[in-house]
């Protein structure tokens, strides 16, 4: 009997019925599969080649062969096999998908995007639904490589191709949108410009055709169509830049977008696009600083160590591997070369007097290395080290070892210093914040910038020809999440550069949904009507723009009507305020928001929301208090909500985030998850209440019938698996409540 139904789609991926496609080579394909499954990949390829001699160019056999070659780490051979399929049938969906995956895995995201575009173009619109999963994979890989704008655009293709939503794609989108490391400029949803008025009919037709391709995700084809139009139609220049952005062609996107910016002048949109360009523009050779080790043979190791330890401008950092990236690297004694002597006091410190590290000395058994950034201070540091080392090193030209280069601007605005021992942790935080603000005020304006053609901001301001890039650069600083931001007087910085404040937002006419994410911070929250306030809260929450979210949430708390009209859950607003204030270390205020959140819950939701507030309170206390104060309360919560499956699920997720419960797939039962709650059990055993209720279920035994933990009477083992005997029932015959179904 045939293994494949004759009228089912052919497994080669052609889209045809098996009976009229690869039916005659089924035996060879099945034999190859058995051989591969039994660990004989070479024999499997021979079986496929035997079939190919009878049916050269057969898509099923060639795609099977390509898959085996990929798993055998033979990407070039796999690519050749797929090319043979596409040579015969350029629109073979299966081969196109495999070739895209291969490009992603072996050549990187940009090559993968280019191949995906070829795949999308070669597939008829009615068959593109099958590419939804591939679009998701491309989007995820782009996100992993930091190409966030392109990632979000590819993920947005998934529901369009699939004609629906799926949880996996939504989760990937939320991961990017809510990431603090992704700036508003990179996660803002850009849309192509429509054709302007006044175009003649042929140009309008070509523009609309290119626009249609862009809307279908055919950005490569659309870019080729917009490019010849861009010389005459400024909107086509912008669309060209966006298409290249979504293709992960950062250099091409910056080139087109900056041409557009030059043509439209100093508009707010131009400033926002320039900020995006500054973030994604590839750095040139002059924008990078070499990170090098200069290595000398050692003559007198002990003499060198004594000289280093005796110098007040050298700090001993201890022993560590000479190359942290090499697991087999030998350990060496490490010293920091400082720009001034170490301080001998711990109070009243100012950032400018704390010694900064200008180089590192690594002392091995037979060699010594000076590790520095070659930013113009190389000769001085080499001379300083040679004088300090004296006769302890061989007076020869050192050999050089290079590391990955560092952006010059990043190096200028970062610091590594050595504080005296015993400085209070709060003082360390204060000094870090003040040092960051000091660098922005004094160093940043004097640092050459790639987006200013190597000029400093002060030089560009004096030349008067860089208003847009300067506005964009200052806007980026204003929107940073660095802790020093609140200490910088940005109005004074703008005045120094001759810049006006960014235009105010009219609260009565602003379209919150269309406003650039980076400009939400300029919205006067208190003057918004209820609908606009709710829209601002929702959009800031989705993009996790925390300062805007907090301002909007505080305003929403005072306007219950706005929450009701927008369908916003009061518990969400208050829990956001708990999170935001706790993140800043304002614990007392966070507890106040928990209390107010409980009170704001409508009577119909108080019981359902109680576990959430209980766990928020425990997590907040766990950040600032010893286990002996909060673990007993956690035990009470487990007891209180033990009979509620929904509450158990929520509590479980919180315990996982706290690191008290770990889960992993069960290798023996794919539908189950292994639950390891030993960390939770240890805390409950040591710090939980030692008394029980009449039911005997408080303290360590609170987990009985609620959340099972290893070592309890119910489990009798170390890891419980849903459905296994180890945790199948409690002492009273009751099944554990903590079950996480797969999918």
Structural class: alpha+beta
| Number of separate strands | 8
Overall 3D shape: globular
Distance between the termini: 34 Å
Biggest sheet descriptor: 6 strands, antiparallel
Low-confidence spans: pLDDT under 50, at least 5 residues? Answer: 693-743
Radius of gyration: 32 Å
Number of domains: 6
* Biggest β-sheet: strands ordered side by side in the sheet: 2-3-4-5-1-6
What's the pLDDT, averaged over the residues? 87
Number of helices: 31
Multimeric status of the protein: single chain
Care to describe what's here?
By secondary structure, this protein is an alpha+beta fold. The protein folds into six domains: 107 residues, Alpha Horseshoe (Serine Threonine Protein Phosphatase 5, Tetratricopeptide repeat), CATH 1.25.40; 82 residues, Alpha Horseshoe (Serine Threonine Protein Phosphatase 5, Tetratricopeptide repeat), CATH 1.25.40.10; 127 residues; 72 residues, no CATH class; 57 residues, no CATH class; 118 residues, no CATH class.
């Amino acid at each position: 009997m045939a293994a494949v139904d004759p009228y089912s789609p052919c497994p080669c991926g052609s889209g045809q019925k098996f009976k009229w496609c690869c039916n005659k080579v089924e035996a060879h394909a099945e034999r190859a599969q058995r051989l591969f499954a039994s660990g004989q990949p070479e024999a499997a390829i021979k079986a496929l080649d035997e079939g190919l001699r009878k049916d050269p160019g057969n898509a099923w056999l060639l795609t099977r062969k390509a898959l085996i070659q990929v798993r055998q780490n033979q990407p070039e051979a796999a690519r050749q096999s797929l090319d043979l399929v596409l040579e015969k049938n350029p629109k073979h969906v299966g081969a196109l998908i495999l070739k895209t995956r291969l490009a992603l895995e072996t050549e990187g995201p940009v090559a993968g995007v280019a191949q995906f575009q070829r795949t999308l173009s070669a597939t008829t619109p009615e068959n593109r639904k099958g590419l939804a999963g591939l679009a998701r994979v491309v989007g995820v890989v782009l996100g992993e490589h930091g190409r966030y704008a392109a990632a979000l655009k590819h993920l947005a293709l998934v529901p369009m191709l699939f004609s629906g939503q799926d949880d996996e794609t939504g989760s990937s989108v939320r991961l990017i949108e809510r990431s603090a490391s992704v700036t508003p400029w990179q996660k803002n949803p850009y849309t192509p410009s429509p054709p302007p008025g006044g175009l003649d009919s042929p140009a309008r037709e070509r523009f609309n055709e290119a626009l249609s391709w862009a809307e279908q995700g055919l950005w490569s084809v659309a870019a080729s169509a917009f490019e010849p139009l861009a010389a005459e139609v400024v909107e086509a220049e912008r669309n060209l830049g966006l298409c290249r952005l979504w293709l992960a062609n950062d250099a091409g996107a910056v080139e087109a977008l900056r041409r557009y910016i030059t043509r439209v002048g100093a508009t707010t949109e131009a400033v926002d696009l320039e900020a995006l360009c500054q973030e994604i523009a590839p750095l040139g050779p002059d924008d990078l600083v070499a990170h090098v080790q200069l290595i000398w043979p050692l003559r007198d190791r002990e003499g060198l160590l004594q000289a280093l330890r005796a110098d007040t401008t050298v700090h001993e950092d201890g022993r560590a591997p000479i190359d942290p990236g090499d697991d087999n690297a030998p350990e060496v004694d490490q010293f920091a070369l400082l720009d001034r002597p170490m301080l001998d006091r711990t109070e009243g410190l100012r950032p400018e007097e704390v010694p900064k590290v200008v180089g590192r000395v690594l002392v091995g058994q037979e060699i010594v290395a000076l590790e520095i950034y070659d930013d113009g201070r190389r000769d001085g540091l080499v001379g300083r080290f040679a004088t300090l080392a004296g006769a302890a090193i061989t007076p020869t030209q050192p050999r050089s070892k290079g590391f990955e280069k560092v952006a010059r601007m990043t190096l200028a605005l970062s610091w590594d210093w050595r504080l005296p021992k015993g400085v209070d942790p709060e003082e360390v935080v204060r000094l870090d914040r003040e040092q960051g603000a000091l660098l922005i005020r004094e160093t940043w304006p004097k640092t050459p910038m790639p987006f200013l053609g190597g000029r400093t901001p002060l030089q560009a301001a004096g030349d008067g020809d860089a208003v847009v890039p300067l506005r964009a650069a200052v806007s980026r600083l204003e929107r940073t999440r660095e802790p020093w931001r609140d200490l910088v007087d940005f109005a004074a910085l703008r005045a120094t550069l001759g810049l006006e404040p960014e235009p105010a937002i009219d609260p009565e006419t602003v379209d919150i949904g269309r406003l650039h994410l980076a400009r939400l911070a300029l919205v006067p929250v208190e003057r918004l009507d209820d609908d606009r306030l709710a829209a601002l809260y929702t959009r800031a929450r989705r993009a996790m723009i925390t300062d805007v979210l907090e301002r909007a949430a505080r305003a929403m708390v005072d306007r219950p009507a706005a929450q009701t009209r927008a369908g916003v859950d009061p518990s969400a607003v208050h829990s956001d305020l708990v999170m935001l204030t706790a993140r800043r270390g304002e614990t007392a205020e966070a507890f106040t928001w928990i209390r107010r959140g409980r009170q704001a819950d409508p009577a119909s939701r108080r019981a359902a929301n109680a576990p959430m507030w209980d766990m928020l309170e425990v997590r907040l206390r766990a950040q600032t208090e010893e286990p002996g104060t909060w673990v007993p309360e956690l035990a009470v919560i487990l007891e209180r909500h033990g009979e509620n499956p929904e509450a158990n699920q929520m509590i479980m997720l919180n315990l996982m985030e706290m690191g008290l419960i770990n889960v992993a797939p069960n290798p023996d039962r794919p539908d189950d998850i292994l639950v390891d709650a030993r960390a939770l059990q240890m805390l409950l055993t040591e710090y939980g209440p030692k008394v029980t209720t009449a039911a005997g279920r408080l303290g360590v035994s609170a987990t009985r019938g609620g959340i099972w933990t290893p070592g309890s009477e119910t489990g009798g083992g170390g890891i419980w698996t849903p459905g296994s005997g180890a945790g199948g029932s409690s002492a009273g015959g009751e099944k554990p409540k903590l079950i996480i179904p797969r999918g």
